[in-house]
From TrEMBL:
This is UDP-glucuronate decarboxylase. It is found in: Golgi apparatus, Golgi stack membrane. One of its GO terms (molecular function) is UDP-glucuronate decarboxylase activity. Its cofactor is NAD(+). It is a single-pass type II membrane protein. It comes from Escallonia herrerae. InterPro entries: NAD(P)-bd_dom, NAD(P)-bd_dom_sf, UXS-like. The chain crosses the membrane at residues 24-43. Gene3D superfamilies: NAD(P)-binding Rossmann-like Domain.
Length: 419
């Protein structure tokens, strides 16, 4: 009998040890086993009809970069969201795009095109030269956001593409009097650094709008992208010229050093509706002066040449550059070349045949010739301008007429054509 009690004590001892002394340890073991059974046996792969459509079945969705949210329509009509970087030509994606300087002349036309395409657009602008009136048509649209922000200060947004247009475009007129020198350079340098930093953080593609001013007073004509320019680094125009050259340097440094996707556009003279009326640029100067019955001011002998592209052509070029696979830089301009006197004559023919021309001393470092070589853009982007100066100028004149005089249709007995 005593032997039986001894055997029972030996058997009961391990159970007392497990249930009393090490009960927490064995409870954890039990939970782990239960969890393993639950995951292996009870969870099975989703049926094929519940997966994303066939075109995306091969994508490794668990390892894609954080870039774009895709709306994928299944056979049942349900919309599944699949994050990931996809080819830019894919029609089913909806891009979230930041346009700095989007309330300005070119920026607002770009926003119009992006919104019409169905993208979601965020505009960041400090309204120094831009205007809310340029974007009023998008107010209330859930795909549109407007932020009052100066790019010299950092900002954090979740976007897929950044069109960096923020910078006053004329350093030689009324605007320049207010923000001479340091402001231009600070916007080009600090603003570009901040936007490149944002592109790095969120994995966005970045497009810099540079300028033909990087060529300075060129010794090569027409100017190709391989030409390094002839710029006076201490002249009155250098705040703009060198500021944009620095912005291009920063953009390429971020691309080479940090593998950021970048694009660079060098924009030549552009005109069209929504231009600032008194910013000192030659087309807006001539049009405003002719409408106000003032003399058209020509600086120097009027033999300096420029090339003028309509804003819709530029926007098309910017979008092709952003969507393409080439970094640039690309010249975006109209190779049609006009002297300042020829431009004045076109304005006279469009607005007022009796408009007078007044000559004034030339400005410092004014380029003698400016004409883009766009062979690279034609070849690699499939882009070239379509609107001639004589076709586009009346559209700009109509816009200026309304903004200067209201809704009058006749200025001094001249009916303006908008065809």
């Amino acid at each position: 009998m005593s032997g039986d009690r001894s055997w029972v004590g030996v058997v009961a001892c391990p159970f007392r040890y497990m249930l009393r002394d090490q009960r927490l340890f064995f409870v954890m073991i039990g939970v782990s086993i239960s969890a393993l059974v639950f995951n292996v046996i009870l969870w099975s792969p989703a049926p094929s009809h519940e997966r994303i459509s066939d075109s995306f079945q091969s994508a490794e969705l668990t390892h894609v970069p954080r870039r774009i949210t895709l709306e994928v329509h299944t056979e049942s009509g349900h919309i599944n969201n699949a994050g990931g970087k996809m080819p830019l030509g894919l029609k089913s994606k909806r891009l979230r795009i930041l346009v700095t300087g989007g309330a300005g002349f070119v920026g607002s036309h770009l926003v119009d095109r992006l919104m019409a395409r169905g993208d979601s657009v965020i505009v960041a602008d400090n309204f120094f030269t831009g205007s809310k009136e340029n974007l009023i048509q998008h107010f209330g649209n859930p795909r549109f956001e407007l932020i009052r922000h100066d790019v010299v200060e950092p900002i954090l947004l979740e976007v897929d593409q950044i069109y960096h247009l923020a910078c006053p475009a004329s350093p030689f007129g009324v605007v320049a009097t207010l923000i001479r020198g340091t402001r231009f350079h600070k916007t080009n340098v600090m603003g570009t650094l901040n936007m490149l930093g944002l592109a790095k953080r969120v994995g966005a593609r970045f497009l810099l709008t540079s300028t033909s001013e990087v060529y300075g007073d060129p010794l090569q004509h027409p100017q190709a992208e391989t030409y390094w320019g002839n710029v006076n680094p201490i002249g009155v125009r250098s705040c703009y010229d060198e500021g944009k050259r620095t912005a291009e340097t920063l953009t390429m440094d971020y691309h080479r050093g940090l593998n950021i996707e970048v694009r660079i556009a060098r924009i030549f003279n552009t005109y069209g509706p929504r231009m600032c009326i008194d910013d000192g640029r030659v087309v807006s100067n001539f049009v405003a002066q002719a409408l106000r019955k003032e003399p058209l001011t020509v600086y120097g002998d009027g033999k300096q040449t420029r090339s003028f592209q309509y804003v819709s052509d530029l926007v098309e070029g910017l979008m092709k550059l952003m969507e393409g696979e080439h970094l640039g830089p690309f010249n975006l301009g109209n190779p049609g070349e006009f002297t300042m006197l020829e431009l004045a004559e076109v304005v006279q023919a469009t607005i007022d045949h009796n408009a007078k021309i007044e000559f004034r001393p030339n400005t410092e470092d004014d380029p003698h010739k400016r004409k883009p070589d766009i062979a690279k853009a034609k070849d690699l982007l499939g882009w070239e301008p379509r609107v001639s100066l004589r076709e586009g100028l009346p559209l700009m004149v109509s816009d200026f007429q309304k903004r200067i005089f209201g809704d009058q249709e006749d200025i001094g007995g001249n009916t303006l054509s908008t065809a």
